[in-house]
Amino acid sequence: MITGSKKMIRDINSHLVLETVLNEGPVSRAAISARSGLTKATVSAIVADLIDRQLVREIGSDDTSLGRKPILLEFCKENGHILSIDLGVNAITAFTSDLMGNDCGLKIFPNNYTRDNIISGLIYIINLSLSELPETPFGLTGIAIGVHGATNGNEIIFAPYYDYSGLPFADRLSEHFHVPVFLENEANLSVIGEKCFCYNVPNLIGLSVHSGVGAGIIINDELYTGINGNAGEIGHTIINVNGRECPCGNHGCLEQYASERAILSEYAEIRRLDGVTIEEFTQAYNEGDPIALRLLDQFISYISIAVNNLLNTFNPDVIVINSGFTINIPELHELIRDQLKNRMKRYCTLVPSGLQDISILLGGACLIIKDFLGVSYCAKDSSFKID
Amino acid sequence: MITGSKKMIRDINSHLVLETVLNEGPVSRAAISARSGLTKATVSAIVADLIDRQLVREIGSDDTSLGRKPILLEFCKENGHILSIDLGVNAITAFTSDLMGNDCGLKIFPNNYTRDNIISGLIYIINLSLSELPETPFGLTGIAIGVHGATNGNEIIFAPYYDYSGLPFADRLSEHFHVPVFLENEANLSVIGEKCFCYNVPNLIGLSVHSGVGAGIIINDELYTGINGNAGEIGHTIINVNGRECPCGNHGCLEQYASERAILSEYAEIRRLDGVTIEEFTQAYNEGDPIALRLLDQFISYISIAVNNLLNTFNPDVIVINSGFTINIPELHELIRDQLKNRMKRYCTLVPSGLQDISILLGGACLIIKDFLGVSYCAKDSSFKID
DNA sequence: ACACTTTGTTTAATAAGTAAACAAATGGGG
DNA sequence: CCCCATTTGTTTACTTATTAAACAAAGTGT
What we know:
The structure is a homodimer.
Chain A: H1 6-24, E1 27-28, H2 29-36, H3 40-52, E2 56-61, E3 71-75, E4 80-87, E5 91-97, E6 103-110, H4 118-131, E7 139-147, E8 150-151, E9 156-158, H5 169-177, E10 181-185, H6 186-197, E11 204-209, E12 213-219, E13 222-224, H7 255-258, H8 260-270, H9 278-286, H10 290-314, E14 318-323, H11 324-328, H12 332-343, E15 349-352, H13 359-373
Parallel strand pairs in A: 4-7, 7-10, 11-14, 14-15
Antiparallel strand pairs in A: 1-3, 2-3, 4-5, 5-6, 8-9, 11-12, 12-13
Helix pairs in contact in A: 1-3, 2-3, 6-13, 8-10, 9-10, 10-12
The structure holds a DNA duplex.
């Protein structure tokens, strides 16, 4: 059991100080003391330790009008690196950053890997990305991998679009690189990214609409994944009794109506095409193709049902939508909001993704920051307009 | 901000000791030390303080084979009382208990009260209930009120079946009785009761099917109510696009298919009755009335959809169902489980309510215990069969 | 030059936990 | 019947971390 001890006090206060420097820095000892409620003596002692551990450094003095000039403290963001991977079905994206998520390099690789060579493929990709980074005191601090499926942190439990289930991703990579490795669902990483960089509220739902439909759930500032990592699998909530058949065995699952896959394949079928990309579909829509218009109308309607259901289930501060359609067709967002206003007496805040296609990668970075520092990163300008 | 301090350590450890005595008592100091990881010295100091505060007392020694006999410690459950109210549409139930939720009296009153006299009516009812209790050191420790609607803790925000919205229930009663008063949704209290007395798991969803349909949500051992107390309003999640019209303005809300109100009114309509109670309906069902059979079949089907959607959204440890139908017709539970097994590849644990019609009242008691002691009560036999 | 402010450090006091020794209580074996 | 092993619970000496207050450092304005 967790008992209170002197170590615990120091831990709590040390994290509090570090959090203040990380998220509000540069900042002086006196300002930290005023904001946190810790005495100046305590702050000084903790800061000395943080400087010793190369997490914090003194930079010049601030210009104030009166009194002794404060010594500003700054988080040593470049003393280590983070590696974040988006394990897509068609592409693998590798992103490296400093300890505040600042871009240190992004590489995209086609995903030709099979079940047999995906792990060694990732090792190759990671080594390639790391080779371009300068030496730092901490080196690599962790690896986050976003997958399109359910995970238990180490393995993929269930993923519809690739055959990687049961492979010990995190174990192998962490053996190889000697750092913590987190394997997490893409919707979950995505919502973490949105929270840390854009919409900093305690209860945030990220609605991710890509091939499938998933929700990342943050409750009381913590990611909620359920007992098997299956929470937020709203693609298989039923919104139409006796509706379309779903591979999952049920009828009328949301994913059969409101996913990219559903819309694109319906479009391809009607137009008798072999397949269609989201870019091709967007072009058709922009050129006024009536089929595309009708399908996107359907999409809007079903997404607003999904949001309605999430609002009535979670009553969160904010719901943030991320989908290829809303990225490619910005006006879509207002149309979804209009539909929703018709549905909901009690209106709630629906906002567009602030990070769009890099939300997974930045969310991964935040996960590693939290693990390495024990403190949640929150970008200074993470108060995007919410209305 | 919350800083670590000596007071905080003592608080944490004191609560840890009290929790052990409350939930695992009678128990000796040595046993508390072994279980919690605190040293014997710390436990002794804290116990002395708890005895001083009349929360814990020493009872006789235990019979052990070897060594000095331990002094058993017990929680002073009868040193205070709790009052719990179920503010039903037709009836108001008042329940008094000791500090472990043991029955000290239950009274049922018809609810003839209007918006103008409901608060004074409650004061009358509460005084009547309190008048039968013996004097205790702490006296009344708190009042919990379960309402059939959404609340913000003090007022009713929205309740479809009575006109009490906006009345300052908690403020008035707490002024009058000088104790904390909690106004909470019935589904929320219900799930608290199920957790504390029956199914002690960290992530528990309580599906309450009465006039409407609501879910109580416990995540990481904490009740989650959303930012306006509207979380769990799953009666208005849409499960049938273009389905039946709902007073909320949408079409196809769950509540139009799977609530007592929906089933009973459909039955009354078909049978051309003025209205029908759940008892009358149950009788018809038991006598083999084909309409009742068909409607209950529909009920099972829609409830299994609701459970499917909750499972895919929350992936909890357990979902517990509480409804007038399952209470009156026990075999219903297995039928719902069978339906669900067809739907879900990943099967999850669905269990029947352990507390049935008193879950709201006992949940209210647990809420007060938590507030008064700062510790969650968990009944010793709260490990009901889960399969 | 001096008073005033603000920052950051030092010092003494206090609270709370820990480990280890000790006292108390008890049963069993010689 | 006495002594010892054993277990419980208390006491003691020590350590750690916070706090309040005094103090030193650094800078500005009159």
